[in-house]
Amino acid sequence: MTDDPPVHPPTAGPRRTSALRAVLAARASRWTDLAQLLPQAGRPLVAAAALLNVLLGLLPLAFIVLVGYVLYLVPQVAASPGADGGSGQAGWSDLLTALGLAVGVFVVQQVLAPFQAGVTEVIARRVDEHCIDRLMTAALHDAPLDALQQPEALDLLAEARAAFARQARPPGDAAAALLSLLARYVQLVGAVVLVGIVVSPLAGIVIGATALAIRFGVRGTLGKFADMWDSLAGSRRKVFYLRDLATGSRAAKEIRLLGLLPWVRARLRSDTMAAYEPAWAGSRKLQFWPMIGLSGVGLVGGAVVLVLVADAAASGRLNLFELGVALQAVLIPMRFGVYFPEADVQTQFGLHSYHALRTFERQIASARPVRSAAPVPVRRPEQGIRFEGVRFRYSDDTPWVLDGLDLELGAGQSTAIVGLNGAGKTTLVKLLARLYEPTEGRILVDGVDLRELDTQDWQRQLALIFQDYVRYELSAAENIGLGAPALLDDREAIEAAARKAGALDVLSGLPQGLDTTLSRRYPGGRDLSGGQWQRVALARALLAIRGGSSVLVLDEPTAQLDVRAEAEFFDRFLATTENITSVVISHRFSTVRHADRIAVIEHGRVIECGDHVELVALGGRYADLFELQAQRFRDTAAVGAVPGPHAAPQGEPDPAADAAEPVPAAQKENAS
């Protein structure tokens, strides 16, 4: 029986070598990324900035040489004959020339230094402009809506946005700082060369290796801290949210009325400490002992070089000029290993936000559906839009929002979609707009699968206003004009859209008419009531129709209008959208009864479809809900209540009885 050969554990040497290679590769990748960003600022400007930084790196070396020469000439001039002697005059002339050149070099350096800061700022802002454009394209154009709801993507997006909100270093600062490092490294190389020539090659090698070793260690520690900082992105996003909540006006009314300030203050403090205490502890752990070790390296390396300088001077191998140059040149590498305020944080953390942007772009690209063929040209629907067996849910662990929905939207017809809250009405609109893709089934436009159409071209065919439409803090004309950007300067078209939506009289009465900013946060600005804002949103959709859209989709378009205004709007709406494929989402049954077709959705399916007369005669779900809403108004009228915004005139059913019966939680529509 023989013993097996002993198994030795792997040595630490290969692991350390592999780790060193990984660190070097990461740093090389960082500098490559920065170099690729710089051309976005303009090649001529970058070339001029590089030349300026090289010059700023060489000027201190020239100053060192000239000062050393001045020190060399002073004893000679002092020992020379008087002013009448020729050699004395020549010595004074050389001394004054060298001193004048030294002063001139110093002055040029001081004059050029502000230009370095100015050029760096211009480069940084141009690079940031490029990156912001990429971020806007990725988030507002390329990203599927479901991808923007993933926590990982939101963390990356928050990291990238924080840089451009100046809550962190932006990529432009990192790219511009690369040029600032150029001046530092030119100084280092020049100083090492001077020490090697004046003292000895060995002294030059030792002082250069010492500077690079300390520099490598300092940046390595900073890189480890950056990795730890990255792991806290989710915590910082919570802090940013609470900070905005605590210092903004969005929640000011509720915080004041509910007395939430003590809670907000305590929560902001606790979450801030939870986000930053791990960073502080990690920073102490990463920097304390490594900094002691690096200080020791600097002490040993500097001492060795100074001993070599002293030995050369003592043995007579250095004259006063060479000794002056050597002592000054040694100080540059000794200072090189320290933290660079103009470059280190910028290149480390500015690039961090750029990497967040690139990772976000890659995630978005992988989440986008792959198109197997060239997109089919988009045109105005001539036959209609059909939902066939459409099923959809927002994630694999959530209930089905749409479950086998079949629906036809006739071209040139008005279709009303009604149902209780959570039935899937808004989700249906999101699928129609291709903000999401059906989990199962398909949507056909004139027989062509919607997924085969170009997304942008199809979305331009839609004049769509969601119930949570955006209230832009812009002028009234711009709030309407954004419905069709090509008509932003067409005041006649904007006024016509406002008139059709019943908003023109209100907007014309503002201090500056349609040019009034719709926000009290600006001088001369005014805010509108909920119903007035809704008319502005409707005008935006109607302008989009004039701008070329062919499918009008309104999601709860009159929820904040009183019932008479709502009835008036629908009469005007049906008259002005003739031959337009229109879809109106509502849970009010009375005000949509003049639509060509009405579809009732429940549990993610169309359970009834027809016009108002047919559905009432059918005696099904539509008839029950219609009667339920009417009965609620009769009961209200019987006790003498004054109809509010959601009440109907006598003899009309109340259009706001969506809460007439409870909706099971499982039916509630996720994120709609």
Protein architecture, described:
It is a multi-pass membrane protein. InterPro entries: AAA+_ATPase (IPR003593), ABC1_TM_sf (IPR036640), ABC_transporter-like_ATP-bd (IPR003439), ABC_transporter-like_CS (IPR017871), P-loop_NTPase (IPR027417), Type_1_exporter (IPR039421). This is ABC transporter ATP-binding protein. There is one protein chain. The protein is of the alpha/beta class and 672 residues long. It has 2 domains: 336 residues, ABC transporter transmembrane region fold; 166 residues, P-loop containing nucleotide triphosphate hydrolases (Rossmann fold), CATH 3.40.50.300. The chain has 20 helices and 10 strands. The strands form 2 sheets. The chain has a 6-stranded mixed beta sheet, sandwiched between helices. A hairpin with a 2-residue loop joins strand 9 and strand 10. Helix 5 crosses helix 11. The chain is elongated and about 120 Å long. The N terminus and C terminus are likely disordered.
